[in-house]
Design brief:
Length: about 350
């Protein structure tokens, strides 16, 4: 609890305060974004869950090939090994986070249940329990010597976190970052503390106003900036043992990627409002016209993450029957080839004659 117990020692720099203003302008239109995207909300969240699962697996080097990953995520095939079982567990956890965000309550039992849900039958049972504190750790003055198990430390950490959230004395993501640094340094479990800590950071952001991560993958943002993320976590951990950790580097990082995520969401909402006025199938066909001569369904999904697979499949089938495209191979990963050429010459318009 070295960070949470020493929040009042910290000062927030002015540049971060200015970033708060930018960020909370976007958070302030969460409801408007939700109302605009409500028709395809479930589709978008499913895509976010897939991306979160994929990039989390990449960050922590879960050994599953991309083709196998797609089979697990899209077809729900049975896992062949522990890594594949973990992929399905991750997908279930991220799905649960979005479905139950409004009712989530941070409790010590929730933390242990998360560990068990993800790693049951993957780790040995002893690693799923809160670990005992070693003697040398009890000599660290801020890890109170009366505690013999990290469960007691996590209970105290959660109590402090909930008190600070309720008091509203600090910006919520700042409190969450302090919680995260305490968590990964306490190391409550024998293994996978970084993984559990990052999932907890994610769920705490989503359940405390950062609704952008329902539409934009948090784990993709972290993975894209992983080198910087690892650096700021290291910087923010420095001097943690003596109660003088500086959380600002990590806090600034999370604020920056959140502002960036809201900017991406703004473009998505703008395009979505435009696309709503068009027939979805025709819109997909227009996208295919702009793609390379050989393309995949993933290319379409990347541009239209909110359009369902069934709509994409219907459009591909229609274009195939019209003789405009044909498949190259079979299966979900098969590519398609266009059987027509578009005239790419630019149209030339004559100047209007305004003489009256």
């Amino acid at each position: 609890m070295n960070c949470m117990e020493n929040l009042r020692r910290s000062q927030i720099p002015n540049d971060i305060v200015m970033d708060y203003i930018t960020l909370y302008k976007s958070i302030g239109i969460n409801r408007n974004n939700h109302d605009t995207l409500i028709s395809d909300y479930d589709v978008m969240v499913r895509q976010t869950v897939r991306n979160d699962t994929y990039y989390f697996a990449k960050m922590f080097q879960i050994n599953v090939s991309d083709s196998r990953f797609k089979s697990l995520i899209y077809k729900n095939v049975k896992p062949k090994n522990k890594d594949e079982k973990l992929i399905l567990n991750l997908k279930s956890v991220f799905t649960k986070i979005h479905k139950e965000a409004s009712s989530f309550e941070l409790l010590v039992t929730e933390v242990q249940d998360l560990m068990k849900f993800l790693y049951n039958d993957i780790l040995i049972s002893s690693k799923l329990k809160f670990r005992k504190i070693e003697r040398k750790e009890r000599n660290i003055n801020l890890l109170n010597s009366k505690h013999t198990s990290t469960r007691e430390l996590i209970e105290r950490l959660i109590q402090l976190f909930n008190q600070e959230i309720k008091s509203s004395n600090y910006e919520v993501s700042y409190i969450i970052m302090n919680f995260y640094i305490d968590f990964i340094n306490i190391k409550p479990f024998c293994d996978k503390n970084r993984e559990i800590g990052l999932v907890l950071m994610y769920v705490l952001l989503v359940t405390n106003g950062f609704e952008v991560y329902e539409y934009i993958s948090f784990m993709q943002q972290i993975h894209k900036n992983k080198v910087v993320f690892d650096q700021v976590v290291l910087q923010s951990t420095f001097n943690w043992e003596i109660g003088y950790a500086q959380i600002i580097p990590l806090h600034q990082f999370i604020i920056n990627i959140s502002i960036d995520s809201y900017q991406i969401l703004n473009y998505l909402v703008r395009d979505y409002e435009f696309d709503k006025q068009l027939n979805k199938s025709n819109n997909i066909e227009n996208t295919i016209n702009k793609l390379d001569d050989t393309f995949s369904k993933d290319d379409i999904r990347n541009i239209h993450p909110y359009i369902s697979d069934s709509t994409i499949n219907r459009t591909l089938k229609r274009l195939r029957e019209d003789g405009k495209i044909r498949p190259l191979g079979k299966g979900r990963s098969a590519k398609w080839i266009k059987l027509y050429k578009l005239n790419n010459e630019k149209l030339r318009f004559e100047q209007l004659d305004l003489n009256i």
